[in-house]
Design goal:
- This protein is mainly α.
- Helix 1 packs across helix 2 and helix 3 crosses helix 7.
- The termini are close together.
Length: about 280
């Protein structure tokens, strides 16, 4: 039976597939670190109190990237080029979701609406990242090689998500509610399709590396598409609700690194909506 646990264990136990998995994850995290550093530098004057948190998220994403590189070095491996069809962030950007890299490369301050849009988009992608890391912790939290890493990253993602909820609720109360709801819905519907496409691409690459039979690859692709169908019908709603988190000020001065940037989720193989 195809399950997330059995498939990820297979990927973990083979050097070539593990190398690709960690390379994709490290690249996405490093990209997120750059994005957050740029956003922190360009935050408008009226929202400068957010800048330290966003900068700390950049440091957090860089830390995650280093963790994946360390996992590679532990195996005596190096990062490989990430296939373009697995680039979650750039696929979202091409759909107009989040803040474009072209805008972030400029020296011009962002507008207040840019920060609202980015936080709303981040609430969606942080939900995906938090969900996927919880799945990894459930199955591999005690694994001798990757257990500590997935527990640490999962805790960070929970903090990121809590921060997004709290800041968006504050901004909604300040009059940005309609913009937030519109961007949340737009981002969620785009994200579930991009996540499907990236998942299919990652699993296709893994299938070639691991020499999966055609029947296994087809069954896995069908499972990914079934998850997308569920999310398209109803599952996306979990990505757009806002509620005050139990952990308030999760990314404040006394907390660990974190912030409001775009997160590249770890693509965990999924065989069915319940896997």
């Amino acid at each position: 039976m195809l399950t997330a646990r059995s498939l990820f264990r297979e990927i973990l136990e083979h050097d070539d597939s593990f190398q690709l998995f960690c390379s994709i994850a490290a690249s996405g995290e490093s990209q997120g670190g750059w994005e957050n550093a740029r956003i922190a530098a360009l935050v408008p004057d009226g929202m400068r109190t957010l800048a330290p948190r966003i900068a700390r998220h950049g440091a957090d994403e860089d830390k995650h990237g280093r963790i994946f590189h360390a996992l590679l070095r532990h195996r005596g491996l190096h990062a490989v080029t990430v296939p373009a069809d697995t680039d979650y962030t750039m696929k979202l950007e091409r759909l107009g979701i989040g803040l474009a890299h072209e805008k972030l490369r400029r020296a011009e301050p962002l507008a207040e609406r840019d920060i609202v849009v980015y936080l709303a988009h981040s609430r969606v992608t942080e939900q995906r990242a938090a969900d996927q890391m919880k799945l990894l912790v459930r199955h591999f939290g005690d694994h001798p090689e990757i257990g500590r890493a997935v527990r640490m990253i999962s805790a960070d993602e929970d903090n990121h998500l809590a921060y997004c909820h709290e800041e968006l609720l504050r901004l909604a109360a300040a009059g940005h509610g309609r913009t937030i709801q519109r961007v949340l819905r737009q981002s969620a519907l785009a994200e579930i399709t991009v996540y499907r496409d990236v998942s299919l691409a990652v699993m296709a690459h893994m299938g070639r590396l691991l020499r999966w039979p055609a029947a296994k690859s087809a069954a896995l692709a069908a499972g990914i598409r079934s998850v997308h169908a569920y999310e398209r019908f109803a599952g996306w709603h979990r990505m757009v609700d806002l509620r005050m988190p139990e952990h308030r000020d999760a990314l404040g001065a006394g907390s660990g690194p974190g912030g409001a940037g775009r997160t590249h989720p770890v693509v965990v193989p999924t065989a069915s909506p319940a896997a």
